[in-house]
Amino acid sequence: MKNSASIVEDTEENRQICRKYCGICPTCKHNSLEKYQPDVLFCARGASSAPSQKEMNCYCPACEIYTKHSLVIGHFCFKRE
Ligand code: SF4
Ligand code: SF4
Q1: Ligand 2, from 43, 59, 72: best to mutate by most atoms within 8 Å of Cβ?
Q2: What SS3 string covers 14-63?
Q3: pLDDT exceeding 70 applies to what percent of the chain?
């Protein structure tokens, strides 16, 4: 309840879930996001530090964390907040 329902925790379990989507998405592969920090779970850990990012398809809407936390839009690897 409250705001905690929308906060994604940075846990190993969540990282494993994220790798099923971010790990195979075109944006991740094109930009080699796995080589930069944060390397996964961008919705919890923030945007990637990778340079020269090119935005391609995002697989976040298929992810169970995305649904569970009622996230919107996706492309968390690019967001600057
Ligand atoms: S946040 Fe979206 S676009 Fe970025 S790596 Fe993950 S699935 Fe791909
Ligand atoms: S919503 Fe996107 S960034 Fe967050 S865990 Fe799922 S695939 Fe990863």
Answers
A1: 43
A2: HHHHHHCCHHHCHHHHHHCHHHCCCCCCHHHHCCCCCCCCCCCCCCHHHC
A3: 90
